Structure formats: structure tokens, C-alpha cells
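For reference, the entry.
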Amino acid sequence: MSYKKQDAMEQFENWSRGYDRSILQRLLFGPSHARLAQELPVAQPVRVLDVGCGTGQFLERLLCEGRAAQVWGLDLCGGMVRQGASRLRRFNGSAHVVQADGEAIPFRDNTFDVVTCSNCFHHFPNQERAVEEMYRVLKPAGRLMIIDGYRDGLWGRFIYDFCVVTVEGPVKHASARRFRELFARAGFVDVWQEAKLGLAPFILTVGVACKPMAGRVEPEPTEQSHWSPPLRQAA
């Protein structure tokens, strides 16, 4: 049985009404957003795209922290987008939300400094295509940061490969190795990962988009630039 986009839309449309009250906000989504925010500059102006933005909580967090950011949220589910647009309306043009497919991102090449995706990557039927699209819209040396459930290890496999699949259907949580493969194939370099253990473990994967700068020729990435350091485990 394969997982289809229509399945994701129906699940999240139903979930959108109680999404902000879910216990997962405290167990997984909140800690994930906090970890992503640590990797973003506070004073440096950046353009951020959050793919699978849900109700816009992560983007609201960034702007409430006073960051010099212009933020865009993208989600396939209309119910999530409507709530996100309502949440972010008070930020006077610094935040924008669109309903679109993360496998066909409706922005031009080289638009964003940072692309984030938290706790929804397992819902993408074509994960390789999604990473390629995130790479495409990043500026040269822009960063992609994906957080999703950490399914490596006995507890992770029980939570994500059994419990989540039982509830949500045949979604696919990528292993740490699979994330590294996806990033490398899309053209990312300097890839590193960090696992956060606990009741709802998650993994952060970060990579830099290796693209030629305008007006100059960039050297081809060396074999070493695709090497990944050992997986970190956060306390």
C-alpha cells in the first residue's frame, strides 16, 4: 500500500481543527521548533520558507523573537493555511502563507536564504522530489534544515514505524542515512545531523546548497565535502 497526497490532505484537514491543542505540540512540535530557531540568525536579515508550516506556529515564534526575517509558510492543507494566515496577519507583511505542494514549490529559483521543514517530511510520497525542490528555491549557500521523527533505534522504530503508521497509514520516516543520501543527491554539502532522544525522539539534518554564485564559477564539490560527521545526540 502506498501513501498518497490525498491521504495527507484528508488527515491534516481533519486534524487542523484541534492541531494547536494536540499533546504533540508539547512532546514534539514545540521542542523541534525551538531547535530550529537556534540555527537561525537573530539580527541578520533572512528570507525563510517553512515547508509544511501547519498553523504557522514556528513562523510566529521567529517573528515574536524579534528576528530580522521575512517568512513564508507553505502547506498542502487548506485548513492549516487558513489558520496560519490568521495567526500571522498581525505581523504587517513580514509573514506570508500559501497553499501549495512541497513537491512543486511555487517560488522562483534562488529565492530563500533558509528552508525549514519540521515533522511533516514523512508525509511526502516523493521525498527525493521534495528535497530537490527545496534545493531549487534556496540561494547559493542557503541552508536546508529538516526535522522529523528519529526512527533509528528500537524505540524510534516502535513509535514511528508501528504506532504512527497504525494511526496515519503507510507514511515513511527516513533514517539518518536516508536523509544524508537525499541531501547529497540534491546537491547539498557540509551536511550534519543531530538526534534528540526522549519520549518523542527527532532528528535534525542540515545542509548547504552548493550552487554557483552569480557572475562567478564555483569549484566542483570535492568528495570530502559530501562526508558527514558522526551523528550528534543532544541531551
Observations:
- Strands lie at 46-51, 69-75, 95-99, 112-118, 138-149, 188-196, 202-209, 232-234.
